[in-house]
Give the backbone structure.
Amino acid sequence: MKFFVNDRCIACGLCVSVCPEVFELERDGIAYAKEEPESGVICAKATEAMEGCPVDAIEKDD
Ligand code: SF4
């Protein structure tokens, strides 16, 4: 499963707080998915981050 951050990101940083294993912030604060989750636990955290994003900027590809 792969995660993507689309252009709706408002740089709130929530996804990085929830799942730093997958998400990281660019220098301008916009998030991106740096890698695919390595395990089911990390995948669950990334999914939690996706569901918590206030502007639905995170998408996933199965
Ligand atoms: S939670 Fe959503 S809006 Fe906030 S930094 Fe992550 S992708 Fe961007």
About this structure: The longest strand covers residues 2-5. The mean pLDDT is 96. The domain at 2-61 is CATH 3.30.70.20 (Alpha-Beta Plaits).
